[in-house]
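Q: Fold this one first, please.
A: Sequence and structure below.
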Amino acid sequence: MKALNAIRMGGMDVLPLVEGGKGISISNGRSSGSWALAGGVGTFSAVNADSYDASGRRIPQIYHGRTRRERHEELVAYSVRGAVAQARQAYEMACGKGRIHANILWEMGAAERIITEVLEQAKGLINGITCGAGMPYRLSDIAARFGVYYYPIVSSARAFNALWKRAYSRAASLLGGVVYEDPWLAGGHNGLSNSEDPTKPEDPYPRVLALRKQMREFGLDNTPIIMAGGVWWLDEWQDWIDNPELGPVAFQFGTRPLLTQESPIGEAWKKRLLTLKEGDVFLNRFSPTGFYSSAVNNGFIQELRDRNERQVAYSAEQVGEHVAEYGVGPRKRPVYVTPADLQRLRGWEAQGFTEALRTPDSTLIFVTPEKAREIVADQVACMGCLSQCRFSNWSQHDADHTTGKKADPRSFCIQKTLQDIAHESNDAVTLERNLMFSGHNGYRFASDPFYSNGFIPTVKQLVERILTGR
């Protein structure tokens, strides 16, 4: 493999190896500080990160507010305190080497407010802000206020063009790099546009080349592009290294750092990674954000699939073929379905899926009474972890904090499940019952000889291995 030379990023020469930020609490101060100590760019998640008491014990994020607005304020306080704690730990572990970035989601609840307060309280500890999941126009303004570099995550040249023209051109000197996140291969939430087919992945090279050409039009010839999604062995990317057509390129690793000794995920999760097969990670659209996301196909995902398949359209009045009356809810309020759908739903009821829940699209889904109670309880307990959520109908943008739409029971509480899997992943049962994000290359743990006999490297060992090209 070609020699991998240092690259200028964030005002410092570093290895062009970036740890991808993974929330909630999956990329933390220990993992990111260790990555920076190895000479690269460590990224901790500033999304509802863990905080600690005076004895070093994790503070559970328990909400006491009676209203969503009150709970939202509690969430903001937890988020700021946790991100500052992780920044401090990362900074201390890095010992002045590499770079430390904080990763946020622009569509998380109170994103702008949280990252502003974090940067105010963690001055000098954070070198850069990485941000995706939306169009973060205000990211450059925040970075300029605190004199830190910023790294927008995009999936197309078109998206960067819009960001640059609207805002980033005013803070060009602090644009540390642009993360190109492959919308078909990256883990977590993905930036597929409506014109792109989730079943037809595109070659990233032409898309990244288009991004570079767009950046050159703005005088950004030497600003690094960080390739994220689908990166495993660097010898598979040799044509990208020192390629004058692409300019300076760094590589982001999101999935591989999960399987390190410094990774905070539990042993059961780490063992599960070693057993994944090709196809076990797939794109789905169950997320309450409305984005596609990549996750392991486990019991949690399968229940969502089944829940969405047990669905029929209904009408409040007899219209067309919707002539069969059906009673919904405790009072059995009448709606009308087709005779064929009435027969189908009677079959689901016979299997125990007796509770019909209305969706915003004038459909009914059928679940067990236990699942119905869980869905309603999760919706009621909403604390506004997203800027707007289709599962609970929360919105931070309106005075009444609602999207104006009916809450959608076909989705799930993302805060609850990510907190559960982050902190209970020593339990194999927990892994089946919760959302498990992963990049699509996760199956390669099982065949990569580096992990033979269940070997789990330190971050230092992983970085050294990556530098060999394998």
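Q: Good. Now the second chain.
A: Here it is, same layout.
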Amino acid sequence: MKMGNHTTKTTLLLFSLFTFFTFINCKKADEKKNDKGLSINKKHNILFISIDDLRTKINSYGDDKMITPNIDKLAKEGIQFNQAYTNIAVCGASRASLMTGIRPSETRFNDFSTRASKDVPNAIPLNQIFKENGYETISYGKIYHHKDDFQEYWTEKDNGQIQGDFQDPKSIERINNAATGEYGKKQPTFEYPDVDDYAYNDGKITKNAIVKLKELKRNNKPFFMAVGYVSPHLPFIQPKKYWDMYDHDAIKLANNVYQPKNAPDIAIEAQHNSAELRKNYLDIPENGKLDDELSRNLIHGYYASVTYMDALIGELITNLDELGLRENTTIVLWSDHGYFLGEHGFWCKHSTFQEAVKIPFLISHPNFIKNQTTESFTELVDLYPTLCEISNIKAPSYLQGESLVPVLKNPKKILKSEIYTRYKQGEAIIDKDFSYTEFYEGNNYLGNMLYDNHSDIKQNYDISKVDGNSKTVEKYKQKLKIMREFVNKKPI
């Protein structure tokens, strides 16, 4: 049976309208967002910025002598966690813990040589879970301490960390003529030749990351990009212009280069002798206090390295913005632990004192609150579940941290009121009021420390033996006992 022209036109019109509205409805479905403001169907990118040995010596954290305009800007574009802590103040262990979402213990993740793939071979590391959820997983610079740790779960990676990437011929000559240290030829502690930002490896990885971002933009591929800066780890090496930004004579030295009053000797002798600095670098005495000029040079080098790293991060984020990727990318900036600059006579990390365990930690998400700080206590082990929730990825059930998404939505929310951290024989519980540490060798109790976080933030006076504090000590002893029992259980 034939249809007339009028019927045919009507049918075609109805079909066209049906097709049009179907397209519109599909489009609306594509644009549906979840309660985090993210597209349900579009994968959310992660830019994962790791910094080695960075304590909270950043302008946005209140240290106004530091020149860190780019990290300060990032803090205004997201949430700054003012009470963020590492779970262990040594790079290998800290990174293995973060990347697997599992806390360190006496037998797991306990020194720089830690391998996540050895200590928890059945874990699903961050790079694996993102790769298996359809992401390009990219690693430039230092992410794990060992470049081959769980390396099969990166879709692309470079050769990892390069420390001692010297450019000054005088430095190289000194190294060639140096004695052997713990990890090879001893090196100068600092240099600042007149070279550009790309002469050093941190500059090279920044350039590589920018090139990769442009490729990802062209290919429209979702990414988990990890960029690991070695600066400001020793040696303090950076272009001259960054050294020149600081007035050498105006640099102040630590005013507490002594053992805290009443603190047990193990907190100083067994935990820390600044061995990393003393064993591997030139012109450093084997024992004893460093003289003022050497101390000032080290602090100057540290400051300059921080500012160099800040400039590179600024360039990386600027390119992310210019490529139009920022609107679908969360930026996380974190440090694996803090750093001593002469406090208590210490240099480097490896302790439970605040300079070693407190860290800068920032999250900038395109759809969450910006230019806010939070006092909610935060640990690096919280990062894994946070990134999973942000990216709509089901997190492994064994993770030992908590997602920070509630804090990103409401920075006034106190998700945690205390954190746990450790190093070697020392274990600590820290909250807004006190920092409490106990020292054990196996089952042998070796001493404790208690510091008032209100009146003694520099931790110069151990009050654990002061009359009237026995109830406080017992309270924190019980907190630590509960945490010790938890972390010593095998997680998977």
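Q: Anything worth noting on the second one?
A: The chain has one domain: 45-417.
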